[in-house]
Amino acid sequence: MVFGMLLLAYSAADVMAQSDVENVPLPKSLMARDNSPLAERKVKFVVGGNVGFGVSYSQLNMQLSPHFGICPGIDFICIGIGGTYHLNYYKSYDGVKNFTHIFGARAFIEGYAWDRLIIHAEYEWLSFPGGVEGRQNTNGVLVGAGYKQKLSDHFSVYGLFLFPVYDELNVYSIMEIKVGVNYKF
């Protein structure tokens, strides 16, 4: 009986000590999140651009591409549009060296994993010299991965390694490398 009373007294003291600890706030990463449909979702916009290059055995491709995107309330996906300009240098099989100015438009979708790893896919419509009327149009699809480094809450720099999975008229190199900057607001 005495043993039972001591056990009861010890349990009561332990409960009182725990009530003092409960007032310590949790870190944000451990707090419960409100995933209800009524939770406030904020749409964010991205403005930026990149420079890129690609190399193959007979071709050098340099490019400049501004873009505008939207992150629709979720931080792990972004869709956007942009323009593109390519300066292509290539050497034909008979040894003739050519410079080609290519311009066009593009649409892209990006997914972010662990807030740094980028999974990227883009469609490009390009116009370049050639054909009967002086310019010829082509389409291309590029997919790849990259890395994003935040410099502040709004600015980030990124690098992408893209591979052409569909290339109508062989405009792209074996691999395209792009480096750019984004401003998110």
CATH top level class name: Mainly Beta
Output the number of helix runs: 1
Count of individual domains: 1
Number of strands: 8
Rounded Rg:
27 Å
How are the strands ordered across the major sheet? 1-2-3-4-5-6-7-8
The CATH superfamily title: outer membrane protein from Thermus thermophilus HB27
Low-confidence stretches: none
Q: At CATH's second level, what is the architecture?
A: Beta Barrel
Q: What is the averaged pLDDT score?
A: 83
Order of helices and strands: HEEEEEEEE
**Tell me, what's the shape?**
elongated
Largest sheet: 8 strands, antiparallel, barrel
Structural class: mainly beta
- In the CATH hierarchy, the third-tier topology is known as Porin
Strand content: over 45%
The amount of helix comes to: 10-25%
Tell me about this structure:
By secondary structure, the chain is mainly beta. The chain has a single domain, classed as Beta Barrel (Porin), CATH 2.40.160. It is built from one helix and eight strands, in the order H-E-E-E-E-E-E-E-E. A hairpin with a 5-residue loop joins strand 3 and strand 4. The protein is elongated and about 80 Å long. The N and C termini lie far apart (69 Å). The model has no long low-confidence stretch (mean pLDDT 83).
